[in-house]
């Protein structure tokens, strides 16, 4: 199974009440790529997915699959597979009945349907459950049936709408890995919508962060996390520490709690870093503050440190040292971990 290049050119979608869900979206998804569309409720991510699927048509703009303009084609003529959040399985059909349903509608001969079903159930690890009813399956198994059904007709594009949202946290974590391996093995062009940043970081070759119907940032997970384009992206993807700058010294920037090693020419109003980039040290450090709390998280502890700012600092410390609330904590940070943001 091979993917196809997918393009949205100047796509805009407004609803009857005048609300613009998507503003002039230009986007290219490469053949075989997995793109995660990430953002809060109402940002336009589901509308974007529905325009790709053919469930919504853009008011302005075009949708292309490879060299074919599919803008006005309905979903059944676009050659897409779709997995919905609630899976939308047929409760009166068995596992194999669900998988072959679309193939039967397309007129595929029974013997070929049976071979294709067996192939897909082996792919998703459900070959021993073919005759079971949907009500007999766990949430994770139902998700796999929905995926097998979407892949059955060998679609050009696979679309997933919050595919793991209905699962508990432990199962969701495990299925992320399985889904990632499956998609990479198939090489199919995939687009999935999520509000879960961990899911987007784990599964997406690139992440499209949407804000109020527009692209806030498009990049690899590493780019999005380490060099966010603006404060919205930085705050939505991961946790963030903010230092208010009050002046400049020979060694860097004066901030709440101390001085940061900033060597760049500009003097921003606020400097940021991620919690894992602050390190507890025994010496003077760059900033100092008092411990408000320490929370054990297994491989690390999350420290909450008050440095005279509106928001306490978050520090992810792997050293295992137990501190007492009220302790004075010194922190250091590498210069390359600091960044400023556009408004």
TrEMBL record:
The keyword Transport applies. Residues 6-237 form the ABC transporter domain. The keyword Nucleotide-binding applies. One of its GO terms (molecular function) is ATP binding. Keywords: ATP-binding, Nucleotide-binding, Transport. This is ABC transporter ATP-binding protein. It comes from Pseudomonas lutea.
């Amino acid at each position: 199974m091979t993917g196809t290049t997918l393009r949205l050119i100047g796509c805009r979608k407004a609803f009857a009440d005048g609300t613009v869900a998507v503003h002039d979206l230009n986007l290219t998804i490469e053949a075989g790529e997995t793109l995660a569309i990430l953002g809060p409720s109402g940002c336009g991510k589901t509308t974007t997915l529905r325009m790709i699927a053919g469930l919504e048509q853009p008011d302005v703009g075009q949708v292309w699959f490879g060299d074919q303009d599919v803008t006005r084609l309905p979903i059944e003529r676009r050659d897409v597979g779709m997995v919905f959040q609630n899976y939308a399985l047929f409760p009166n059909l068995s596992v194999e009945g669900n998988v072959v349903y679309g193939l039967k509608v397309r007129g595929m001969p029974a013997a070929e349907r049976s071979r294709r079903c067996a192939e897909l159930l082996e792919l998703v690890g459900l070959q021993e459950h073919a005759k079971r009813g949907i009500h007999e399956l766990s949430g994770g198994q139902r998700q796999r049936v929905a995926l097998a059904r979407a892949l059955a007709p060998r679609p050009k594009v696979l679309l997933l709408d919050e595919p793991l949202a209905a699962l508990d946290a432990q199962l969701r974590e495990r299925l992320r890995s399985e889904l990632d391996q499956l998609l990479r093995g198939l090489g199919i062009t995939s687009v999935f919508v999520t509000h879960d940043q961990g899911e987007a970081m784990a599964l997406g070759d690139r992440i499209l962060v949407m804000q109020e119907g527009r692209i806030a940032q498009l990049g690899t997970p590493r780019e999005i996390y380490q060099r966010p384009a603006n404060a919205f992206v930085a705050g939505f993807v991961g946790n963030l520490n903010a230092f208010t700058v009050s002046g400049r010294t020979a060694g860097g920037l004066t901030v709440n709690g101390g001085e940061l090693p900033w060597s760049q020419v500009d003097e921003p109003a606020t400097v940021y870093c991620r919690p894992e980039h602050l390190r507890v040290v025994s010496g003077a450090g760059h900033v100092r503050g008092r411990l408000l709390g320490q929370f054990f998280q297994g491989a690390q502890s999350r420290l909450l440190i008050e440095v005279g700012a509106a928001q306490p600092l978050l520090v992810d410390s792997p050293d295992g040292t137990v501190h007492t609330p009220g302790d004075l904590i010194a922190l250091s940070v590498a210069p390359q971990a600091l960044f400023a943001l556009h408004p």
